[in-house]
Write a structure and sequence with these properties.
This protein is an alpha+beta fold. The chain contains two helices and four strands, in the order ααββββ. It folds into two domains: 35 residues; 80 residues, no CATH class.
Length: 133
């Protein structure tokens, strides 16, 4: 009889511990899914910072941009900019903030992907500028 009680309690304990582990993993994953989209306020903030830097550092106005979005990369836990310029509507330029607070061209997507810098109209924007140097 003692062996049966011991076995029953051991099995019950194993089920409870397993359930707790599974539920904690599930809640962690749910939390990650919620944070993958990033904070809307931070996205707006980085857009405003980019537009300010674009105007001050590159002497370009917001009117030269067709589409601008602040995005969040959950893998790096950081925000970045995707910009499409009116003179290149099929090319997406990706900009990251550097440690000095400026922006740096991080890559090109869309039809600009794989093109040489000579084939792109806007690859010079923030390509070598680092604020504070």
């Amino acid at each position: 009889m003692n062996k049966r009680k011991y076995l029953l309690f051991s099995l019950l304990g194993l089920v409870i511990v397993s359930g707790l582990m599974i539920s904690s993993l599930t809640f962690d994953e749910i939390g990650k899914i919620g944070s993958q989209s990033g904070d809307t306020n931070e996205k707006e903030k980085i857009k405003k910072e980019f537009l300010y830097s674009l105007n001050i550092d590159e002497h370009l106005s917001e009117e030269e941009i067709q589409q601008l979005s602040g995005e969040y990369d959950f893998k790096t836990n950081d925000y970045y900019i995707e910009a499409i310029y009116k003179n290149e509507p099929s090319v997406i330029y990706v900009y990251y903030k550097n440690q000095n607070g400026g922006f740096k061209l991080g890559g090109v997507l869309g039809e600009g992907q794989g093109k040489s810098p000579e084939e792109l109209s806007n690859d010079h924007i923030f390509s070598s500028y680092i604020k504070g140097t």
